[in-house]
Amino acid sequence: MVLKALFLAWGDLARPRIFGVVALGVGLTLLLFVGLQALIFWAAGHFAPESLTLPWIGTVPLAPALSWSSLLLFPLMSIFLMAPVAAGFSGLFAERVSEAVEETHYPASKGLPVDFWDGLWESLAVMGAVILVTLVTLLLTPLLGPLASLLFYGGNGWLLGREFFQMAARRHLHEPQATELRRSLSVQATALGVLIALLLTVPVLNVVVPVLAAAGFTHLYHISASRPRDRRG
Question: Which of the residues 40, 85, 128, 224 has the least number of beta carbons within 10 Å of its own beta carbon?
Fold first, then answer.
């Protein structure tokens, strides 16, 4: 069920309507990371001492060195920040992606749009939780060792699965019913969330994963629904 949903979502990325969302998502994601990198580059050069005197070495130009070395952070930002970016962008992309997926694969069971602001605020809350999980994982890595990766992927997988499945289900159900269905399918939603979290740590590929997640969880909802749930109410 989970792999089928992910496989169908991969195929959807090439569809014209969804590809347009992919292009928008890639552009916004790259713009965000370039902006963060530029901010770090500027801060390192502006606030760090201009030079540092070291024994036996002499004077080292510290500020320029820190500014240019900060460029090495770009791949790390891509790995650790893509999960919260995916959670945040879900409020922007999920509706458009879900609508396109349902029109293509499930025309007899199209849902109603979720209020944009409700989805956005919920996405921001989950984004904050994902950032917290990421920070806790980084802080505990020296203590947990290899187990830190289990915390990172397990925690983010659960949070992403919760967010994306809830948004897909709320197109068809009122929030209490959507929450009940999500809880009954928590294993499947978390499993797909963990796969999404794994893909989010793959450089270059991860920029399309937020859209892939929205499509995948739309498929998971329709595949797993035991009976038609075409309209909320």
Answer: 128
